[in-house]
Request: fold
Amino acid sequence: MSSIHFNADDLSLLSNADILRRKKQIQDKLYYLLDFVRQDITSSIKSNSISLEGKNFNEPKISRGENYSELPYLVLDYPSKFEEDNIFACRTMFLWGCFFSSTIHLQGQYLDRNRQQIKTIAQKLIGTPVYISCGESPWKYSYEPDNYLPLTETSIDQINRNSFIKISQKIELDDYSKVREIASKFYLPFLEELSY
Reply:
């Protein structure tokens, strides 16, 4: 059996329990931030007379994990429907050390019945810091050129080509205080204009 060796940096981390306590405190704050996003989306839905009743949406859910690209993350799915191959999801995500994001994810019947409406909404977003998916997996969220392209007149054609579409706004970590406002405003036109 090979021996395990810890270098000085490893031992320093192993000896410092405060790092994990601090991480938990930060994750708790992030959980509350995402719950505020949920409340803001709910208020936006009500104030714009959008009805989700009887549409079989899932209950709002905030999930935590430790291994998305080897990093901790938190995700708010609201409003959302995950039905085998049919997905309609507003996903607000925090990825440790990287970004916050607001993403609308459509797949299956929700994409098929809304392609033109999505294109109309997306055209209004050209020139803003919004991206469109071009990757092969609907579960990849990094803003790499093989996964997301800036939304332009050319990249908007992804809406007609792909079996899923994600339109996403990246929010830098330094802009954490804007996450609530950005997310609720970002989802509103999709919730107003798409059929679900």
Q: What stands out?
A: The chain has a mean pLDDT of 95.
